[in-house]
Amino acid sequence: MQAETPKWTFIFIAVAVVGFIIQQFTDLWIYFAFFPALAVDMPWMFVTSIFLHASVEHLLFNMLVLFFMGMSLERMIGHKTFAMLFIASGVVGNIGYMLTASDPMTPSIGASGAIYGVIGTLAVLAPFMLIFIYGIIPLPMVVAAVLWGLLDYIGLFDTSGIAHGAHLGGLFLGAAFGLYLRWRVSSARRQSHF
């Protein structure tokens, strides 16, 4: 795996910020949010909803996490692979939301599913990388990912308005992708020894 200067991390942050600004001036965003009931008729929502956010706090938190974790992962796996993982995790996150939403006409917006994909992949590729919860509590990446996964699983049984199914969908895809990348690297190493 090559070390590349992050590019898509910044592009995704910029698109999310522009998306949020557009949301403030027009109601057209409603056609780009993810509604489980409309997913078959409006499939673009699987992707477009990733770049919309419910509030400034929602946007800032997601973009802060994406900035730090996205830069680390994009350096590890490269531009194209990172971009593919981010979008795929967002789509699978929306599928996770679709499978767990209590009301199929309640929309889901936000990059959380995609970001959880980044978290899942980092938990496999860099399990002991330290992250700081709330900026002060140090935890290894794998421990943080497991804790967030457990909290989201518990959250499935709560009516908080948080798309826990989206988080879990992204996390599972990210972890699976991380395992695939590890297998690919170890397989290449084995072949180079022959």
Number of helices: 7
H/E series = HHHHHEEHH
Helix content: 55-70%
CATH level-4 homologous superfamily:
Rhomboid-like
- CATH names the topology as Rhomboid-like fold
Which structural class do you get from the secondary structure elements?
mainly alpha
Q: Low-confidence stretches at least 5 residues in length (pLDDT < 50)?
A: none
| Biggest sheet architecture | 2 strands, antiparallel
Quickly describe the structure.
With 194 residues, the chain is mainly α. The chain has 7 helices and 2 strands; from the N terminus they run αααααββαα.
Structure, explained:
By secondary structure, this protein is mainly α. The chain is built from seven helices and two strands. A two-stranded antiparallel sheet has the order 1-2. The longest helix has 29 residues, at 164-192. The chain is globular and about 55 Å long.
Layout of secondary structure:
Layout: H1 8-25, H2 45-48, H3 56-77, H4 79-100, H5 112-125, E1 130-133, E2 137-140, H6 141-155, H7 164-192
Antiparallel strand pairs: 1-2
Helix pairs in contact: 1-3, 3-4, 3-5, 4-5, 4-7, 5-6, 5-7, 6-7
Keywords for this entry:
about 190 residues, mainly alpha, Rhomboid-like fold, two-stranded antiparallel sheet, 7 helices, about 5% strand, globular
